[in-house]
Amino acid sequence: MSLGEFDPELDLVVERVIRAPRHAVWRAWTDPARLAQWWVPAPAVCRVQRLEMRPGGAMVSQYSTDGTRFVPHLDAVVLAADEFERIAFTNAIASSWRPADPQPIAVTVEVILAEHPEGTDYRMIARHGDPASRSRHAEIGFADGWGTVTGQLAALVEGVGAEAPAGFEGSR
């Protein structure tokens, strides 16, 4: 499957222009402290247990609705981590590299970051194994949940200083 390919029968998508440089969005995905700030819809809070942003690395988080009692949120494997451009992960394989039966849905997520005149062209595609899984994900609130956390991500990074880290070749 090529970068960013979308199948309307199997996939769901969130697209947004984030008015911040790609490196800031990348950092919000790859820095555990920053990821914890936006990864679950507020007022719930998140703990990032493991974040190894490299192919084969772990991505494990928990969430809490009362700020004290945390439950599992995501146990996934990173499939791709192309610096400043793309992140892909799946919960169909647990961070232990064992096959998983994630509830309520197995999904592979691809996050694509591209240059935009106003910041970052942000595209997150949730890929499903069959149309029933896609429909189930839509029914349980994909648009609200992923839309909310994308808004939280944007709020976190918009207004962040635009100094690019070493190795970043984007225009902003």
From TrEMBL:
Top-level taxon: Bacteria
InterPro entries: ASHA1/2-like_C (IPR013538), START-like_dom_sf (IPR023393)
Domain (Activator of Hsp90 ATPase homologue 1/2-like C-terminal): residue spans on this chain: 19-158
SUPFAM superfamilies: Bet v1-like
Family to which the UniProt record says this protein belongs: Belongs to the AHA1 family.
The protein's name: Uncharacterized protein YndB with AHSA1/START domain
Taxonomic path: Bacteria, Bacillati, Actinomycetota, Actinomycetes, Propionibacteriales
